[in-house]
Amino acid sequence: MRGADAPVESADPEVLTVLDTLVGRWGGRAAETERERRLPDATVAELLDAGLLQLAAPPRFGGPGHGWPTVVEAARRAARACPSTGWVIGVVGGHAALAGRLPPTAAETVFTAGVRQVFATASAAADGRFTRVPGGFEVAGRWRFCSAADHADWFLLSGHGDDPTDRVLVPLPAGKVRIEDGWDVCGMAGTGSRDITVDRVFVPEALAVSPSRCFAGRSPSGTGPSPYYLDEVPFLPYVNSCVIGPVLGCAEGAFAACLTRFAQGTGGSRPLEQPLVRDGLTESAAELACARHLYEDMCARLHAAGTARRALPSEDAAAIGRDRAYLARLCVRSVQRLIQLAGTAAHFADDPLARHWRDLQMMAAHRDLNWARNAAAYASAAFTADGHGQAV
Fold first, then answer.
1. What is the pLDDT of residues 324-381, one digit of tens each?
2. Locate the Acyl-CoA dehydrogenase C-terminal domain: which residues (predicted)?
3. N or C end of the chain: smaller count of CB under 10 Å?
4. Residue 384: pLDDT band by 50, 70, 90 thresholds?
5. Residues 237 and 302: beta-carbon distance below 8 Å
6. Could you give the angle at which helices 352-364 and 244-264 cross, rounded to 10 degrees?
7. Chain region(s) in the chain for CATH 1.10.540.10
8. Cβ-contact 100, 110 below 8 angstroms
9. Is 114 helix (H, G, I), strand (E, B) or coil?
10. Residue 59 contacts residue 226 (beta carbons within 8 Å)
11. Angle at 314 between CA 312 and CA 316, to 5 degrees
């Protein structure tokens, strides 16, 4: 097992070197980020200037075209200092690849201004709807949980059309939506995951696509071989797994904050010399080591499938969902123990350990980390009635 600070294989070391020069600033702004319920403008400018929100942007539109491990490893390292910043790098930054998978006219439209943009998604429709009209769709209603909404240049909206079984995905420029100030939460406040409202906007047919078609595997988009695969492989296992970098990094940041607290001590106490503290730290460290094993395995499996332009078999996709959810369980257990070891003093709002703990609770509630859903999908793929299923 490599050390916690060792970069995951296949992640671009130059990107990580640039990121490592900035994480101290983001950690210094973490309290402000939480208080303002959005990333500071200075942080977003740094992310864009350093290319950290464009990591997954397609080369054909001027993007660097990095592989998936670079995106999630950058998010992991940022989340150690500021979980909300790590979330925006991994989840929002990953949307640049989704934008490149839109129909040709739509992709060319959204990238007209280049790749130095923020692409927010809106997939949780409160009452958002798509009504088919001559030549396209009329979009109206409200969507929830749009991370980085305040900084978005484009919103990628999805929801049901006239037929409840049909879903539609369209891009809308930020000027066509109204951002609602309702993101008042006790974890991941800094992501600015606000509601948005759309007041009857027409979207031409050429800009719309079904999510299933957008996420499906496709023929190479270029004229020759390219190392960039995120616009060709079936996309769902990748986009659903962007959360593992921020989750693991948040837990690692909590562990570092706890060690700092115990090393400093209070009132002459030396917590690191107490057997109960040492035992608890050891078990939490073991859980994080196991989480890192799962993380590295998922990165390797997804990257290998991507570079081979190979769709994951259903049992492999189910195993990745299982491991994604179990990684979150390990991280939550590890940090919960740290909070209990630290006691009441760790629960002040501006305490770094408390902030990471709050943020991790919110991250772990994400639907792609839900244990029941992922466990059921894995069981269906791995365990057959005749006993010949293959657990992976």
1. 999 999 999 999 999 999 998 888 888 999 999 999 999 999 999 999 999 999 999 9
2. 245-370
3. N
4. confident
5. yes
6. 160
7. 13-110
8. no
9. coil
10. yes
11. 60
Q: How far apart are the first and last CA of the chain?
A: 20
Q: Are 107 and 127 in contact (CB under 8 A)?
A: no
Cross-strand bridge partners of residue 170 = 157
Instruction: Report which of 320, 335, 336 is spatially closest to residue 368, judged by C-alpha positions.
Output: 320
**CA atoms of 372 and 374, how far apart (whole Å):** 6
Closest Cα partner for 228 from 82, 45, 59, 51? 59
Residues 6+ apart with CB under 8 A from 359: 83, 84, 187, 188, 250
- Name the fold adopted by 13-110: Butyryl-Coa Dehydrogenase, subunit A; domain 1 (1.10.540)
The two tokens of residue 284 are 């939490």
| Complete DSSP assignment for 172-187 | EEGGGSEEE-----SS
* Helix, strand, or coil (residue 169): strand
DSSP sequence for 9-55:
TTS-HHHHHHHHTTHHHHHHTHHHHHHHTS--HHHHHHHHHTTTTST
CATH 1.20.140.10, the chain: domain bounds: 236-382
| Cα separation, 364 vs 332, whole angstroms | 8
37-47 burial, b at 16+ Cβ within 10 Å, e below that, comes to bbbbeebbebb
8 Å CB contact between 219 and 176: no
The string of pLDDT tens digits covering residues 236-246 is: 999 999 999 99
Closest C-alpha among 115, 80, 389 to residue 253: 80
> Which of these CATH numbers, 3.40.50.2300, 3.40.50.970, 1.10.260.40, 1.20.140.10, describes 236-382?
1.20.140.10
Report the CATH superfamily, name and number, of domain 119-212.
Answer: Butyryl-CoA Dehydrogenase, subunit A, domain 2 (2.40.110.10)
CATH 2.40.110.10 region(s) of the chain? 119-212
